[in-house]
Amino acid sequence: MERYSSVFIAIFVLILRLAQAQNQTGFISVDCGLSPPESPYNAPQTGLTYASDAGLINSGKTGGIAKEFEPFVDKPALTLRYFPDGVRNCYNLNVTRDTNYLIKATFVYGNYDGLNVDPNFDLYFGPNLWTTVSSNDTMEEIIHVTKFNSLQICLVKTGISIPFINVLELRPLKKNVYATQSGSLKNLFRLYISNSSRRIRFPDDVYDRKWYPLFQNSWTQVTTNLNVNISTRYELPEGVMTTAATPLNANETLNITWTIEPPTTPFYSYIHFAELQSLRANDTREFNVTLDGDNTFGPYSPKPLKTETVQDLTPEQCSGGACLLQLVKTLQSTLPPLLNAIEAFTVIDFPQMETNEDEVAGIKNVQNTYVLNRISWQGDPCVPKQFLWDGLNCNNSDISTPPIISSLDLSSSGLTGVITQGIQNLTNLQYLDLSDNKLTGEIPKFLADIQSLLDINLSGNNLTGSVPLSLLQKKGLKLNVEGNPHLLCTDLCVSKGDVHKKKSITVPIIASIASIAVLIGALAIFFVLKKKTGSKVEGPPTSYVQASDGRSPRSAKPAIVTKNRRFTYSEVMIITNNFQRILGKGGFGIVYHGFVNGTEQVAVKILSHSSSQGYKQFKAEVELLLRVHHKNLVGLVGYCDEGENLALIYEYMANGDLKDHMSGTRNQFISNWGTRLKIVVESAQGLEYLHNGCKPPMVHRDVKTTNILLNEKFDAKLADFGLSRSFPIEGETHVSTVVVGTPGYLDPEYYRKNWLTEKSDVYSFGIVLLEIITNQHVIDHSREKPHIAEWVGEMLTKGDIRNIMDPSLNGDYDSTSVWKAVELAMCCLNSSSARRPTMSQVVFELNECLTCENSRGGAIRDIDSTSSLDVSLTFTTQVSPIAR
Ligand SMILES: *[C@@H]1O[C@H](CO)[C@@H](O)[C@H](O)[C@H]1NC(C)=O
Ligand SMILES: *[C@@H]1O[C@H](CO)[C@@H](O)[C@H](O)[C@H]1NC(C)=O
Ligand SMILES: *[C@@H]1O[C@H](CO)[C@@H](O)[C@H](O)[C@H]1NC(C)=O
Ligand SMILES: *[C@@H]1O[C@H](CO)[C@@H](O)[C@H](O)[C@H]1NC(C)=O
Ligand SMILES: *[C@@H]1O[C@H](CO)[C@@H](O)[C@H](O)[C@H]1NC(C)=O
Ligand SMILES: *[C@@H]1O[C@H](CO)[C@@H](O)[C@H](O)[C@H]1NC(C)=O
Ligand SMILES: *[C@@H]1O[C@H](CO)[C@@H](O)[C@H](O)[C@H]1NC(C)=O
Ligand SMILES: *[C@@H]1O[C@H](CO)[C@@H](O)[C@H](O)[C@H]1NC(C)=O
Ligand SMILES: *[C@@H]1O[C@H](CO)[C@@H](O)[C@H](O)[C@H]1NC(C)=O
Ligand SMILES: *[C@@H]1O[C@H](CO)[C@@H](O)[C@H](O)[C@H]1NC(C)=O
């Protein structure tokens, strides 16, 4: 019974040992060049499971060593991968961060290419040089604590020699073994003292360290059949510890020598001892461990059948790189020194930090998403500098801090699909260029979360949706989204003129649908103005009509060209036939119909004398206006400034103002979206000309639908520009303190700061846009939200754009075009003038809207021909005065 149980225990122990030995947890065993169908396999002798490298590297070719070498090589080294293309080729390994790894790379040339030349290339560990491979059969090993969850091992071509690799092996170690003060360990040798030729590795060595036997003639072999206690943190194989040697001559020292290149390289040694002989009572074995004659440890006596490791706590150096380690018997020792095993490592520093791990994950996601097979896109994206990935730029000022990716240029790279999430992880990106690809989908909001971004170029793609508000709101960001035909609110950001200058401009904001600032601003003004102007909430209309000269309405010249544009008062009386026919009451006076040269119709505005700021200013102003010519500006034909009589003579606009056509006052209701768009495009062009084409730039100050006039061909022209500078609005006397404009259209910022810019016109223009979209009154007290911007904002938050659309359009419009227009309007209405688009941008956007609308199936309208306009009901030649 007792025998049975001891047998049972023996078997039990054996099973435990085997189970422990078979444990490959965390091992990475890569047979480079193995064809995937043969992967994985269990290697003979070790039983380790090797897998192909196919999933770990995208480049290289596979090969095998020549037949004649096969008998001398372990199975995993029979195949190899070689790298004829590219300078740096890298393996990407998934590891566990903060883990102490034994990492081995095996290179067996074996004349795989039939050229029979020794290799010579560099091996890199991430961004750092590991070693130069120059032997035809070598294994490189390091012990390294990983910092990240991924690891790159790179082969770098340094000359004509083509890099190759046969085996890659990673074994996780316990944390506290082979610890160093700093740096990693590069294996110099790992020897056990035996006169056999057997190499010991897995499964005998649980860490799969490879032990080579060492023996010298001056030694005598000592072995034991007893078990040696190997339970130390180094978990040495029993086969290593059950053999040892002592010098043949008992008085001799036991010497081990080696050399170190370069000579000053610090190293660590680990000397493993266990007393294998049973000592008699009067025997002692005691020795000192010396290096180059200096005592480093001792006196020391190995423990019977128990493993102990003598290790350096600080790195050592040998003079001249020639090391002599001696075990020197002490005087009292009766037995010679004994050695079981020894390992030595040089310290290897990997000073260059890897690129920020999250950024690496991000850029790899980009690479995988877009299947970018660029040969340079291997290994660390940023470092070493000579291997910087093509299209990237990095910030790498200091090797001890992780480099960061500062710029990514993937323009014209044939990218398809959506903008990948991976970019989100490039949190230090300043410059992102994805232009001229085939990217689709929406512009992701996460771009706005990348704080560092200064410049995004997404032009020339096929992005859809709208530019995220958060992105537009980002201060100091230059955003180019030109050439994305389906993108809403495009090109608000880089106007065409700015593209070449590459000037950084502030991005305008799309007013948030629920932008409280806008609404409150608009509301405040509305009430304040209401108070100021009493019942005259909707300022005086400024409609008037002008004579058509019958020439092309696109002519940039005014209708009537007279050498001398200054008319006498008596001439004005003749022109107007004694002020017979009133056309309307304009902003600064009554407008009369008239004829110049007997046939050509004009509109004559008689300025109320009291409104004049002063004769000199008026004259200067008028001289200026006479020089302003644009097809979308109502031309000033001449003026009269005789004494107290001031008059302006304009070209005649047969179809009155846009407001009439929106309200149906003229029985000419414009119910076609394309026509409305065409009218606002033209008005925008006129305004743009005032802002950019005039020197000095001119701010209109009173953009509104009643100041958009239509000629007989329904060409839109902007009226009443340039005057408000010298004429205060009716009823007000102190120009400097007066905010000029029409309630509802008035820029809240202008009102607040009394600071007039072109952007005030942009605001007013935004209101005009909302009017043509909604056909609602600018201010309507029957609405819960009286102000149109407020009302639209509220409707938009409720969701459906149809809620705000003018029902009389009957849904007959391109929704992209409408959305774009709505967004543009909201952009224009941003409470901050700096964030509104410029008129150039507005013109561009509206043209895009028009293109969208016109490209709608067969809905192209010849807007130069009145016959094709669906507004051609009755054409009157007169605008009835509107008094409100
Ligand atoms: C294998 O080793 C790992 C770590 O050393 C341990 O967590 C795991 O339990 C072991 N598995 C077996 C089957 O022994
Ligand atoms: C490495 O990890 C990544 C992410 O966890 C995974 O997608 C990839 O498949 C892994 N690669 C290998 C070879 O296991
Ligand atoms: C390496 O080179 C030596 C000398 O040229 C040769 O004897 C040996 O067989 C080669 N080994 C391999 C694996 O190529
Ligand atoms: C190794 O040493 C032992 C004991 O000294 C001896 O019996 C054996 O023959 C030696 N083996 C070899 C290969 O030298
Ligand atoms: C070793 O040294 C001691 C004293 O120094 C001497 O008596 C002894 O003979 C020496 N043994 C051998 C083998 O040389
Ligand atoms: C060991 O080294 C010492 C000093 O260099 C030398 O005197 C001695 O002969 C060496 N012993 C052997 C066995 O080589
Ligand atoms: C040690 O003791 C043994 C007997 O136990 C004896 O034969 C031997 O000579 C002694 N050796 C020494 C050095 O005293
Ligand atoms: C061994 O080391 C001790 C302590 O360092 C020293 O006193 C002794 O002289 C050394 N013995 C020999 C033989 O070197
Ligand atoms: C981004 O980084 C996080 C770690 O912060 C990582 O978990 C995630 O997988 C990365 N995302 C991508 C798309 O690479
Ligand atoms: C762009 O995308 C739209 C829809 O999102 C699609 O209809 C159009 O064909 C695409 N254009 C190109 C050039 O791929």
The total of beta strands comes to 41
Span from first to last CA?
120 Å
How does the helix and strand content classify structurally? alpha+beta
Beta-strand residue percentage: 15-25%
Classify the helix fraction into a percent range: 10-25%
Structural domains: how many: 6
Number of helices: 15
Major sheet, described briefly?
11 strands, mixed
Low-confidence stretches: 1-21, 490-563, 726-737, 858-884
- Name the CATH superfamily assignment of the largest domain: Transferase(Phosphotransferase) domain 1
Morphology: rod-shaped
Quick one: CATH class of the largest domain? Answer: Mainly Alpha
Main location: membrane
Keywords: ATP-binding, Kinase, Leucine-rich repeat, Membrane, Nucleotide-binding, Repeat, Signal, Transferase, Transmembrane, Transmembrane helix
Signal peptide: 1-21
Subcellular location: Membrane
Question: Could you explain the architecture of this structure?
Answer:
The protein has 884 residues and is an alpha+beta fold. The protein folds into six domains: 23-173, Galactose-binding lectin (Jelly Rolls); 187-350, Jelly Rolls (Sandwich), CATH 2.60.120; 357-506, Ribonuclease Inhibitor (Leucine-rich repeat, LRR (right-handed beta-alpha superhelix), Alpha-Beta Horseshoe), CATH 3.80.10.10; 511-542; 544-652, Phosphorylase Kinase, domain 1 (2-Layer Sandwich), CATH 3.30.200.20; 657-857, Orthogonal Bundle (Transferase(Phosphotransferase), domain 1), CATH 1.10.510. It has 15 helices and 41 strands. Strands 1, 2, 3, 7, 10, 13, 14, 15, 19, 22 and 24 form an eleven-stranded mixed sheet that branches. A six-stranded mixed sheet has the order 34-38-39-37-36-35. It has a five-stranded mixed sheet with strand order 25-26-28-30-32, with no helix packed on it. The protein starts with a helix and ends in a 30-residue tail after the last helix. The structure holds 2-acetamido-2-deoxy-beta-D-glucopyranose (10 copies). One 2-acetamido-2-deoxy-beta-D-glucopyranose (NAG) binds next to loops. One 2-acetamido-2-deoxy-beta-D-glucopyranose binds at residues 69, 108-111, 136-137. It is a single-pass membrane protein. Keywords: ATP-binding, Kinase, Leucine-rich repeat, Membrane, Nucleotide-binding, Repeat, Signal, Transferase, Transmembrane, Transmembrane helix. ATP binds at residue 605.
